[in-house]
Each structure stands twice: as C-alpha cells, then as structure tokens.
Amino acid sequence: MFDKFKQLGELKKMRDQAVQIQKQLAAQDITVEENGVYIVITGEQKIKELQVQGISNQVLIDVINKAVKKSQEVAAKKLQEMSGGLSGLLGNMGK
Q1: C-beta separation of 65 from 57 below 8 A
Q2: Whole-number mean pLDDT of the chain?
C-alpha cells in the first residue's frame, strides 16, 4: 500500500518537473533569419513572429500555431496509447 503512495509521490514530482521545464521552454525564444524569412519561435514550438521579405501576417502565424498544436495533440495521444496512460504506471491501485 505504501508503494502506491510512493508511486503517486514520484508521479507528482515528475509532473512538477515537467511543468517547470515547460515554463522554461515557453520563456526561451529561438530566432532564425534566412533568405528573406525571419521567424521567432518559443522553445515550446509556438510561433511569436514571422516575416517574409519584411512583411508580417498574423493570420499565417495563427494558422501555423494551430497546426503545430494539433500535431502535438496527435503525438501526445499516440504516446498515451503506447504507455497505457497512468494506469500502466500505477498498476492496479484502483482495484
């Protein structure tokens, strides 16, 4: 029984670490400028700024961010399916 509580504690610690990493990634900007294209993207893959030959287009930025978010959701779903979700980590705790 105490092992289950220990597992929950470890899961909380892992979650807290993941949240901290996500905050660090959100605060980091990566800038690339090449062939008339200028882009600023966060470490969590969100486009902040995009210019093509000096022209910015907020609609394009919004659509790219939406596509990236959808791709991340698909990847997260696949990972969850592969790992069996939390039930695989917690064993038969609920039983």
Answers
A1: no
A2: 83
